[in-house]
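Escalated from tier 1: S-adenosylmethionine holo job.
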Amino acid sequence: MAPAIEFPEPFLAFLKDNNLSLDEYAFEVLPRYIRVKPQLAASLDMNVVEAELGTPLTKVDWLDGFYRLRGDVNIANSALFKGGSFYGICVSSGVAVHALDVAPDDHVLDLCCAPGMKLCYVADLQGSDGRGTVTGVDLSPDRIAVCKGLLKKYRLERARLFIADGANFDVYAPSKLGKSAAPSLLSSGSANRSHESVIDDAIDVDVDRVSLPTSSQSSTVHCIPSRTEATTGSKTKPFHATRLIRHDPQLKLPSLLYDKVLVDAECTHDGSIVHLLKKAILGWSDIEQNLLSPSRLETLEGLQRGLISNGYRLLKPGGILVYSTCSFAKKQNEDIVAWFLERHPDAQLEPIPGVDKFPLARSLVNDYPEMDLSYAIRFSPVASRTSGLFIARIRKGK
Ligand SMILES: C[S@@+](CC[C@H](N)C(=O)[O-])C[C@H]1O[C@@H](n2cnc3c(N)ncnc32)[C@H](O)[C@@H]1O
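Tier 2 regenerated the structure:
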């Protein structure tokens, strides 16, 4: 079958340099996926959703809460979508979050969080009864603004966002909920807080834009020093934080390392079919300039190593880090994980729960005779009928 997308020369050269085949793109129209907000799963009538979208929905039987539908359906006009009952998110992205095993009391760090589909999934899995929080970090002010919009739309109460370089980010998990009188997250037992709206009262810090990268810089410059983080005294100002966690004193105690860390790393996006289809319509100029230029590719792998290393540094002993990219390139996936495991003998690659049921693509682990990378998985359009995604789950030694 011919590739579903017509690619420009630099993209074809990128595939060749990375030993990738055009066969990765030899698929018919892919389905799209939606995820129902877990808190509404019992009450949302899927027949009503089907009627609104005008197409049948098929439950994905290997990941809770996900449904498959025709790829050409526009969900944006659905009233239930606009009202926050469900999300449009590919099920392969869902697996990256599922691999974190998020529990209600977990503090989760998402180091490349924008536009925020995975971050919202994390927050939904936490629910609002535990003590868990999610901290999102992204270098792009424009994209993080979208993430803030999603948090508000879906009324997610335990999140804060920072515009910062994930390779240098250094804020630990929040140590308390609410103002000083509120229960400390350092103490055990569930938080006894009122359920007044914390969303409407969320803080939106006016970050001094003079010290921030412009949006055009942010798409090209990726390893910038942490001076771009807006700081007040010794505290790093969030771009957005709900009232529940805005008063965090930002202590740096070992007990405040994160329980889970997601590194959904910046990459060449060559497996993100939605992204490529947009480029095919809108033009390839920025993918050529910003993503596939030799200088960009040189710094990208350094950034990915920086992100996974910093994520691991901020992870609690015994905690889980998930590294994922939407690239098919081994250099950005297995090579990064192998490089990382070599330097962290305490870290263990683990199987992702439920993996036996996933429709996976062939793994590329044969180049590592000294190391077993077989638990790292790949989704691909042809094998999985999803967007491409590489996912590795790593447990930190105790
Ligand atoms: C693959 S996208 C993340 C998608 C996101 N996790 C989601 O599920 O919606 C990669 C993100 O990394 C961000 N990024 C690039 N360089 C970064 C850096 N040094 N630190 C933090 N984020 C960075 C980009 O702005 C982009 O939003």
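Residues 91-395 form a domain with the Rossmann fold fold (CATH 3.40.50.150).
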